[in-house]
Amino acid sequence: MSAPVPLGPPRSDAASPAAPGAVTVVGEALVDLVSTPDGGLAAVLGGAPFNTARALGRLDVPVGLRAAISEDRFGGRLLDTLVADGVATDRVRRCAEPTTLALAEVDADGSADYRFYVEGTSCTVVPDLTVPPAGWLFTGGLALVFDSVAEAVEGMLGVAAGRLPIMVDVNCRPRVVPAREPFVERVLRVVALADVVKVSDEDLGYIFPDVPTADAVGRLHALGASVVIATAGAAGVTVHCASGVWTEPVPSVAVVDTIGAGDTFDAGFLARLVAVGDGVPDRDGLSAAVRAGVAAAAVVVGRRGADPPRRGELDPAVWAGPLG
Questions:
Q1: Are strands 244-248 and 237-241 parallel, antiparallel or unpaired?
Q2: H/E segment holding residue 35
Q3: Strand ranges across the sheet with 112-117
Q4: Burial of 288 (0-12, 13-18, 19+ CB in 10 A)
Q5: Cα distances (angstroms) measured from residue 23 to each of 151, 208, 210
Q6: Per-residue pLDDT for 19 more than 60?
Q7: Do residues 57 and 87 make contact, with C-beta atoms less than 8 angstroms apart?
Q8: Which among 60, 94, 172, 194 has most CB atoms closer than 10 A?
């Protein structure tokens, strides 16, 4: 294990490579079209990996994004926002294809459902997938969906497995999956390469229909991941690892919408782990990391769209105490 990487001040050289021992995020950057209270649509920058990278940057974690970003106006906004939030963009691939769009339909309780407009857009372009020399590797979402990109990402993970700690947030999007069976087969192969896997209860229902949640989580853990984290909204976050199975509670908060909540959880979780070093900690360390993820997500659900918190917005207790 390499030396621990402290959570220092924001990076001033956001366009340079991410520091060794930080986080490399792989996946899509797109634009969510979100319904507004007056019945209109607002263009909100998004994409699960994009949100996670931004959230990590705002939490003062050195982070770089590997994504294909369009040369159109939306792409320019995506890139400018990454730089403003301290995300290294030197490995972003600019492409001529237009920015992928997602229509986010928000229901009465703030939950969002998505319809994607993908064909011929930036999310189908393979980004730079050179394996970084050190640090955490994070991916998921649409990076596991479209064959050309997903095959390349799976290949990258295969090279990185055993060399770098890997976290995968499955983040299923059934509306955009071309065929369920090949997608699920790929997800299970990727899970076997990961050290930490995060799934929601909806993900588990899609991957393992009619299988109880506890059994589904156990199946993922048996594939080889050291840790499986299962989120279930207000019901809490369950952790399944060699040290046992337990659930961390989720505070009751007023929800505006859930856009970016899971992505921000990932960032808070990884921010705590980066402070430990570049491996998976023990049970106490995992519990602390989950609590950091929950605290970060609790902020973002109180805001419209994916607007992750900065480190100073979180209770200092999130970062207090032993990090090992």
A1: antiparallel
A2: strand 30-35
A3: 41-46, 30-35, 101-106, 112-117
A4: buried
A5: 21, 30, 35
A6: no
A7: yes
A8: 194
Query: Tokens at residue 41, please?
Result: 């649509």
pLDDT per residue as tens digits for the range 97-141: 999 998 876 655 556 666 788 899 999 999 999 999 999 999 999
Among 269, 262, 288, 267, smallest CA distance to 25 is for 267
Q: What is the pLDDT of residues 197-237, one digit of tens each?
A: 999 999 999 999 999 999 999 999 999 999 999 999 889 99
**Residue 174: strand, helix, or coil:** helix
Mention every residue, 6+ apart, whose C-beta is less than 8 A from residue 316: none
| AA identity, residue 233 | G
Read off the pLDDT of each residue in 288-308 and give the average, rounded to a whole number.
Answer: 91
Q: Reading across the β-sheet that carries 136-140, which strands appear in turn?
A: 87-88, 63-66, 23-26, 136-140, 166-169, 196-200, 227-231, 237-241, 244-248
Residue 4 has pLDDT above 70, yes or no: no
On whether the CB atoms of residues 114 and 257 are closer than 8 A, the answer is: no
- In whole angstroms, what is the distance from residue 24 CA to residue 63 CA? 6
pLDDT at 294 over 80: yes
> Where do the DSSP E strands lie in 58-149?
63-66, 68-70, 87-88, 93-95, 101-106, 112-117, 136-140
